[in-house]
Design a protein that fits this description.
The radius of gyration is 22 Å and the shape is globular. The model has no long low-confidence stretch (mean pLDDT about 90). It has helices spanning about 10-25, 65-75, 80-85, 100-110, 140-150, 195-205, 225-230, 285-290, 315-320, 345-360, 375-385, 410-430, and strands at about 5-10, 25-30, 55-60, 85-90, 95, 115-120, 130, 155-160, 165, 175, 185-190, 260-265, 270-275, 300-305, 305-315, 325, 330-335. It has 12 helices and 17 strands.
Length: about 450
C-alpha cells in the first residue's frame, strides 16, 4: 500500500474513482455524508444510488452512449458490471432495477479491503491527495470551500425528476406495449388524438409550478428540460420531442397516434414505470391533475412524483486543468457531474479517469486523457475547450469527436466508422500508457 487518498462522494463517479485507486495500490477513504446528512433527491444511504432515470441509455456501439460504455468496460467500470447484474428489459438501452443496482454498487465498494467508507459530511476540501466527486447535490459548506479554492462562484441550474406510475393502475384498454418501428415491446405507450393533445398542452401550460426561484433565468441543461418548459416553447414542441409518435401504431385504430407518452420499466418485476421525458417542477397536486389527463393514466397510482433539486457544476474550462485538476494543487482532482458532464455514464467515466490520473500523479507519472477521436476524449476536450462564459453541461454525442477525413453521407455507416475508429484509438491509447482494467471485466 502507498498513500492514503480521500474520495469525497459515494455516487457513481466516487465509487469508480475509489476502486481505480484501490486497484493501483492506494488505501482510500471514501467519504459519503448520507445518512448523516441527506439530500433533496436521495432515498437511501446506498452507494451509487440513482436519483433520476433508471436507464444508462443505449448499448449499441454505433450510438455515442454505447461507445462510451465500450471504453468504460475496457477500463473495468464497476457501474457497468453492477448494471449487467441488475438489468431490466428496455430495448437497446441498458436499464436497471435501481434498488438492486445500488445494492450491487455498495457491495462492490465495501468488499474492497483497501477502501474505508466513512459516513460523515465533508465541509471543506481535504488535505492530501483527493478526488471531489460530490455531484450536483454538493452540500453548502463544501461548495463554499470549493468556491474559495476556485476563486469563482461557479454555475448552477435545476435538474428535474420524472414521475413513476404503478403498472396495475394503468388502463390496459388504452395503454399498449410496443417499441418504435416494431422493436422489442419493452415500452408502454399512452396514445393521444389531436383533441386530447390540445387539452393536455393547455392544462400543462396552465399548471402551477413550485415557486421560490427566478425560473425565467434558470440555465436549464437542454437535454433535461422540465416538460412544462418544453410545452411553453411551442404547441408542437412535445409532439416532436418526448411525445413523438414516430414508429408506433395504436392497435385500437391501426394508425399512428397524434402523440404518445411512453413509459419505461423501472424494476425487473415490471411494477414501476417511468414517464419518459416528463421531468417536471409542477406542484404535486398539479401533477395529479394534469398527468391524469393522459389516456390510460386517468386512475394511475403515482409511486413517485416529479421534483426539482439544485444542480451545481464548476466552470471547468476556466478553472480546471485538462484532466479536471485544481490548477494550483496537482493532488486535488474533481470528477462526476460537478465537472459539467451530464449523465450517469459520463459522470462515472470521469470518475474512472480521475482515479487513473491521481494514481499516476502520485506515482510521478503525467496525467493522461484519451484522444479526441474517442468518446471519453471528446467529452474531456469539450470540458477543456468550451467557452467559459457559455459553459453548460454536456453528455455523449458524436459531435464531440474529431470529424472523419472523408464525408460519409449515410448516417448509420458514418456512426459505425466513428465507433470503430474510437474503439481502435482507445485500445491504442490504453496500450501506449500501460493501462489495464482496474476491476476484472
Amino acid at each position: 500500500m502507498t498513500a492514503v487518498v480521500t474520495v469525497v462522494g459515494g455516487g457513481l463517479a466516487g465509487c469508480e474513482a475509489a476502486l481505480q485507486l484501490a486497484q493501483a495500490g492506494h488505501r482510500v477513504r471514501l467519504v459519503e455524508m448520507r445518512p448523516v446528512r441527506t439530500t433533496e433527491a436521495h432515498q437511501t444511504d446506498h452507494l451509487g444510488e440513482l436519483v433520476c432515470t433508471n436507464s444508462f441509455k443505449s448499448e449499441a456501439p454505433e450510438n455515442a452512449h454505447g461507445q462510451l460504455k465500450r471504453e468504460m468496460r475496457a477500463l473495468g467500470s464497476v457501474l457497468l458490471q453492477s448494471a449487467d447484474a441488475c438489468k431490466v428489459a428496455a430495448g437497446s438501452a441498458l436499464a436497471v432495477d435501481r434498488q438492486l443496482f445500488s445494492e450491487a454498487m455498495t457491495a462492490a465498494v465495501t468488499s474492497e479491503t483497501a477502501i474505508e467508507v466513512v459516513r460523515e459530511e465533508c465541509t471543506e476540501l481535504p488535505d492530501g491527495p483527493a478526488i471531489i466527486a460530490t455531484g450536483p447535490l454538493t452540500s453548502g459548506a463544501l461548495y463554499e470551500s470549493i468556491e474559495g479554492a476556485l476563486g469563482d462562484g461557479g454555475l448552477a441550474f435545476f435538474d428535474a425528476i420524472a414521475p413513476i406510475v404503478e403498472r396495475d393502475s394503468l388502463d390496459e384498454s388504452i395503454v399498449f406495449e410496443a417499441g418504435r418501428y416494431d422493436e422489442d415491446a419493452d415500452y408502454l405507450n399512452c396514445p393521444m388524438n389531436p383533441e386530447e393533445y390540445d387539452a393536455f398542452i393547455a392544462a400543462l401550460n396552465a399548471g402551477e409550478a413550485h415557486e421560490g426561484h427566478d425560473w425565467d433565468t434558470v440555465p436549464y441543461f437542454e437535454g433535461c428540460l422540465p416538460v412544462e418548459v418544453m410545452a411553453s416553447r411551442g404547441h408542437e414542441t412535445l409532439r416532436f420531442g418526448p411525445m413523438k409518435p414516430i414508429g408506433l401504431t395504436d392497435p385500437r385504430t391501426g394508425d399512428r397516434p397524434w402523440a404518445v407518452v411512453q413509459l419505461r420499466r423501472e424494476d425487473r418485476a415490471g411494477q414501476m414505470w417511468n414517464m419518459v421525458g416528463f421531468q417536471t417542477r409542477l406542484r404535486t397536486g398539479e401533477q395529479r391533475r394534469v398527468f391524469s389527463m393522459i389516456p390510460g393514466l386517468h386512475d394511475a397510482e403515482f409511486l413517485r412524483w416529479g421534483s426539482i433539486h439544485r444542480n451545481s457544476y464548476l466552470n471547468f474550462p476556466e478553472r480546471l486543468s485538462a484532466w479536471g485538476g485544481l490548477r494550483d494543487r496537482s493532488d486535488l482532482l474533481f470528477a462526476g457531474q460537478l465537472t459539467g458532464v451530464e449523465g450517469y455514464t459520463e459522470s462515472a467515466a470521469s470518475g474512472i479517469l480521475a482515479g487513473i490520473n491521481l494514481a499516476r500523479l502520485l506515482a510521478g507519472d503525467g496525467p493522461v486523457v484519451p484522444p479526441p477521436t474517442t468518446m471519453l476524449g471528446g467529452l474531456f476536450r469539450y470540458l477543456r475547450d468550451a467557452a467559459p462564459g457559455r459553459f453548460q453541461p454536456m453528455n455523449s454525442n458524436w459531435g464531440l469527436v474529431d470529424p472523419l477525413p472523408r464525408r460519409v453521407k449515410n448516417k448509420k455507416e458514418k456512426r459505425q466508422i466513428l465507433a470503430q475508429r474510437a474503439q481502435d484509438d482507445f485500445t491504442s491509447w490504453m496500450v501506449d500508457h500501460g493501462l489495464t482494467a482496474a476491476v476484472p471485466a
